[in-house]
Write a structure and sequence with these properties.
Length: 249
């Protein structure tokens, strides 16, 4: 149950359009709800400002669908991350308006319009085209959580002039998410240019000695630029969520 639906319910009780017992029934599943494959945290939207996100990887299409149905019943917008395209047809039979985002491998369902909850803009910057899928996961996450999001792609250090020509966009952002693979140098460069929080996202893009993103992760953790926080490898969702928390302040 989101804040808007709870307010509507309480207003109906106040106006005596809904009985106390009826409202109590609606609130019984507010903390959490147990189904066969999951225990769904319905209270998260009220507690943290965003509903639970479904991590699609490792779940069957039927399991994802079961969770989605209970979330929809509570009036929550739905975000499923790391969802294989092959699971989408079954989900779309129950949710014809579900939208699949192939680059980020995410699926969204809107039960109500998304309201902008922050005045600032989150800028998602990525080093190369191969990093775009992780960047797009961050973009979609931040948008679903009520943020204005801008993108700046393929501006890595191999051609630093591409980044420097967009300095004005860097300076205008309230929070920056910087996504990079290979040697992971881009967040350090951006962090040295701006006076805003920078969230660095290492990706698993690179050759053998990249070690599946470990090289970029360690480079970002050892950045000499101040004001940089680092999330896990390929964790665009975590970066988008963290940026949203900062952007609300």
């Amino acid at each position: 149950m989101n804040v808007q639906s709870l307010k509507r319910l309480l207003e109906k009780v106040r106006q005596k359009k809904t009985g106390v017992d009826e409202a109590l029934e609606a609130l019984k599943v507010l903390p959490f709800e147990e189904i066969e494959c999951a225990t769904i945290d319905h209270h998260r939207s009220l507690r943290q400002g965003a509903p639970e996100t479904i991590f699609g990887e490792g779940k069957t299409a039927a399991q994802v669908l079961a969770i989605m149905k209970r979330m929809k019943a509570q009036g929550n917008n739905i975000l499923v991350t790391r969802l294989d395209r092959g699971k989408v047809p079954l989900i779309r039979r129950a949710f014809p308006k579900a939208r699949y985002h192939p680059q980020s491998r995410a699926l969204t369902v809107s039960t109500h319009p998304i309201t902008l909850t922050a005045k600032g803009t989150i800028l998602v910057v990525c080093a190369g085209t191969s990093d775009i899928p992780v960047a797009e996961e961050a973009v979609l996450t931040a948008q679903m959580m009520g943020n204005r999001v801008d993108q700046l792609y393929d501006v890595g250090v191999a051609g630093i002039h591409r980044l420097m020509s967009r300095k004005e966009r860097l300076m205008k952002a309230h929070v920056l998410i910087v996504v990079a693979g290979m040697e992971g140098a881009l967040p350090s460069v951006v962090g040295g240019l701006v006076d805003r929080p920078v969230i660095a996202v290492p990706t698993s893009v690179g050759y053998g000695s990249h070690f599946g993103g470990m090289t970029a992760l360690l480079a970002m953790l050892n950045s000499c630029a101040s004001g940089i926080a680092v999330v896990n490898i390929d964790n665009g969702y975590g970066a988008g969520y963290f940026a949203s928390l900062i952007n609300r302040l």
